[in-house]
Every structure is written in C-alpha cells, then in structure tokens.
Amino acid sequence: MFIHSSVAAENPFIQDATIEKTIKAVRGVSSISEALVERGVKQAAALWRSEDGSQQDFQQFCRQYFCKDLNEKTILFNRICDNFEVIYGHNNRISIELMRPEQLAGYPSTSVDQLFSAYSGMAHFQEDMYASKLAFVIIINFPHFTLKEKQHNGHRWSDLEWGFVRLGDVFTSRVPASAEQRIANVSTAANSYIDKYNINMQQVGSYHNQFFWNYSLPLTSHWGLRDELKAAYADRTFGADKQEVLYDVMKRIIKDEVPVEVIKQDITYKWYPSTNQIMLNGIQILSDARNPKSRYQYLLDFFKAERAADEYYTNNFIQRKFEEEYEISVDDAVTLFTTLLTSPVVEDVADLISKRLGRRLQPFDIWYDGFKNRGSVDQGTLDRMVKAKYPNKEAFENDLPNILTKLGFTAEKAKFICDHVAVDASLGAGHAIEAKMRDDKSTLRTRIGSDGMDYKGYNIGVHEFGHNVEQTISLHDVANYFLAGVPNTAFTEALAFTFQGKDLELLGIPPDSNENTDNLKTLDLFWNCYEIMGVSLVDIQVWQWMYEHPNADAYELKDAVIGIAKQVWNQYYAPIFKVKDEPILAIYSHAIIDPLYLSAYPIGHIIDFQLENFLKGKNMGEEVTRIYKLGRLEPNLWMQRAVGEKVSVQTLIHHTEKAARELSGLPKNPNKSQNKSKTSSKKKSKK
Which phi and psi (to 5°) does residue 355 adopt? Predict the structure, then answer.
C-alpha cells in the first residue's frame, strides 16, 4: 500500500476491501491506466480520515471525481494550474508586504512588526484543501511518484506529464495548520534575530589595542564579517591583522559570548574580542549580559517545530529536505562533499595559496579570496566606483537591463525580465524572493546605504539578480505552472554564482587577459567548495545529533555544535592547515535561519562549474534562457538536458588538478595529484 502519513500507516481508516472495490468501480468508468487508478486510490485512502466520510463516501467520491480520460485530466490540470497560481501568488505577495518592516531599511520599528511578519495565509492551506476535498481530487488524479521512480522514468515523460507528477508532489502528507504555523513563527523569530545581529567594527579593537575601523561599519553575522575578511586580502598593510580581529569576533559569536553592549552597537563601549573585555572611557567593566535568547535556542526551536511535524510524515525533516526538496539522498550528498574534501588536490591548492600569501595558512584562509580579480583591487576604489554608479536603489534597478544586455540577453528579453524584478534596500545581507504568479515581480534585496551602494552590496546584488533572472524565466517560460522553477535551490544558486563571478566585468573592469584567468577561476571555485562543503557537513551532523538527542537543551546543543565543527575541521582541514580544534565551520547564519539549506551552496557550486564550462564560447543570454525554461525536472535529467552530463564533482577536481599544476609551473606529466592518489591506494592495499 502506498502510504504517506505515519498516522494512516499505523491506523488506516479506509479498509483494504473498500480500496479494492473502489479501484474496480473507477476502472469501470475511466480509461486512465489501471496502474494510475490503483496508485491514486491507494494514496487517497492512506490520507482519508473518518471525519472525511464513510467507506461508502470514499468509494463514491473516487468514482465521481476520477477523470474519465486524458482530455478531461488535462482540462482539470490546467484549471488547477490557474487557481493555484492565484492562491500561491497572492499569499506570497501578502507575506512579502507584511515582512517589509522586519527586513527593509527605512521602516520605524513597532511592537507588532514581528507578529505580522509571522502571519502566513498559507498556514491553513493544506488543512483547507483536505477539508474541501480538493486535495483528494488532486491525489486520485495526480498521484505522487517517488524519487527513484522519477529518476528511472523521468526521461520518458513529456512536459505535461512532468506537470502532472509535480502536482502529485503537493499533497503527500496531512500536517495540521498549527504545526505549519509553529514552523513559520520559529522561522520569523530566527530571521529577525539574525537580521538585527550586527557587529559595528568601530567598537572593535585588536589584542594590541589597534582600532582598524575608525568609522561606523555595522557588519551582519556572518555575511558581512566574512566579506570584510575577504576584502582584507587586498590590504597589504593591515589586512592580516584585520582578519585576526574578525576571526576573533566570529569565534565569540559561535560561543554565544558577544556582550550585549556590542549587539546593541553602543559605540561608547570598546570591545576586545580576543579577550572579550569591554571598556568604557578607558576603564574595563564587567558585562555578563548576553542576548536574552541564545543563538542555539533559535536552532533548537527549529528542530522542535520540525520534529513535531514529523509524525505526519513517513520520514524525518532531514530526509524530507534532501530526498524531497533537493531530490538527492543525504548519503549521496555527503559522498559528493567528502569526495572533494579528501581529494589530494586540496593540498596542492593550499600550497599554492600559502605561497601567494607568503605565510602559512591560518584557519580564516578557508575564505581566501586572492584567486579573484577583486583580490588585488583596492576595496576603497571599488566602493567609490559603485557608489558613484549606484547612489540609490533606483539607479541600480534602472541599470539592470544594461547588465543583462552585457551578458548577451536581447534588449527585448532584458526588458521583459527587468520589468518583473523590484529592488529593495535590505536590513540583512540580501536575498531574492521569487514571484509565484506571472502578474507579480520577484524581489531583489541587498544593502544600500544612505550614501549609496558599496561594493559588498553590489556584489551581493549581482548574485541575487542571478536568482531573479532564473525565477523570471522559470516562471514565465516553462510549459505549465507546476513545472515552474528548478529542480532544487542548488540550481538557482548556480546561476547566481555565475552572475556574481562577472561583477567586476559588469563594472567595466576587464577580466585578466593572461592565460591563467580560467585556471584562477577554477581554483577559486574549488576553494569555495572546499570551505562550504565542510560547513554543510557540520549542518547535517548537527541535525543528526539533535534527532539522536531530542531532549537536549540549548547549552548542550551549543557544546555539540562546537564539538561537531571541531571534529569536521580536524578530519578534513587540520591536515592542511596544521592546526586542530578550530570551530569556524559553525559560524554560518544559514544554520540558524534556514536549516539544512547550506548543502544547496556546494551542489550549486558544482553545477555552476559545469554550467560555466558549457557556456564558454556560447551566447550566455540565449543559453540561460534555453536552460532555465526546462523547469523543475529531476536534477540529473535537468543537467543532462541543460549541459549534457549529470551532476558530478569529478569534473571540477580534474580541472583543478590541471589549474594547480599549471600555476605551480609543474610539468604536465606526471600528475602530482594522481601520483598521490596512486601512492595512497598502494598504502591501503598493503594494509
């Protein structure tokens, strides 16, 4: 029996005899295939409860609402597409509007802002659909297919059939509105906490009493801190000292030890994160005050909310996130990550970075940014260029069509896309929000100061614009509404990374003309993967730990997160950096506001590399339009149709070996990394 609800699995209301009678009755009035009839009836039976009607009611309902033939099914599908676009689209717009005071600059704070932003018009959607029995109409006619079935059969399905299948993914469980609302409330609270968690670097001093930032510079955790650390590579005088201070700040955040005077950005206080001392007018004060709710309590609240919803599924949140959202198993994702993390070429790249820096690697060098053009461009110059070009959000929004035409989009397509994108000045680091109906606009949010957009805001803005381009194409150009989107978030991240990598070029700074340009880009992407894959492993292992310790409190969770971060560091990074027990992999704010989202980044990087390689020598605008109109197919099928190969890390590893070899001036043969691999294999065989 095909079951999606753990409650139904343990105590099914519809009896097997009723199911068999119903299947027979439906087959008598419908020409739809016997297999689909059986699948639809059994899935509906698994979710039907006593309050929905009697055994006879169930049989009569299925007989009445099961489509008689493919033509009737197609008409029904198109009507559902139209109506769901209205429901999803307008509710999405309501949420965007209600969250504005919490997420955007320029809104005075009120006591009701967080309450309104937590409101979700979709909280009762599933409950209402089951109560009206619309959900059951969909289940019997558009049943759910498993990931394995999609992988095995997807290449044979037409766009219409893929639309049927994606509609079948909508109702596979029966979660009460109260459980959905609890998750929404937790998400809103966590996002508000992170959006307002800024460190003003004007307050922050080094161990040697140096204050490198003599102007107000609020940096959000973790994005702003990380980007400032990256920018410091271009500062030949104080860059390394700044990076040590920023790293000390990050470690205090991870340990949840940042004093409240810093969180409140009261610049009358000076803070020394290396020792965690607070000074007022040159006098040290004691500050035991911390944020009233800890970083780890927000994470724990997320776990408890998702675990409470687990009883309405046949799997847990981790499995749902990977197998149903990413459509890749946890084990396959971990294998993908560890394959790169343990590749011998990691040592080659690390050696190259160390030589370029002229020093041994430090833990914060997981964010080494020197392979990019911007690694050698003065940050102040970039800031001045961007602020002159984009003094306000309107200037940036008006320039978006020019950005697209520079990337090879036709003027007509550029105008169409940009007519469906709106720019906002964000309180947080920045993000993109998709439109869910064709009459709406997707939203681009990034930081834009009162004196204009700086380079960080621009760099993030270009990244988010990549999301908006995907969101617009994959909504307007797909074959049907339920095919809208991409296989998972990694595929939209891929295009965002592709856009972001062209940010300097779009500013008019030409790419390096030397023969090593492609090698440097490959090494940069590989090192990004090396960093974020470890972060993703921490994220996964933390959730696995919470499921193993469901009664843990926030203090125990904090110790576990730090312990897991150190363990992953020691396994995959300590052999390279020659230092153990570093907690830095636990700094990412995504882990607090968007559980298990982090894995989308490394998968996105891999897809980005495959996409970039495919786009070489081609018109980017034409190919991006062709590729992203494929819609929400199964991931590997999407990749095969887009670029001609499945998602694979081996392509990136191979190109990185070549790039490291050529930049190090080593002979093309023998391959150093391959020799290491062979040596390792021999050692293993001896054992």
Answer: -65, -40
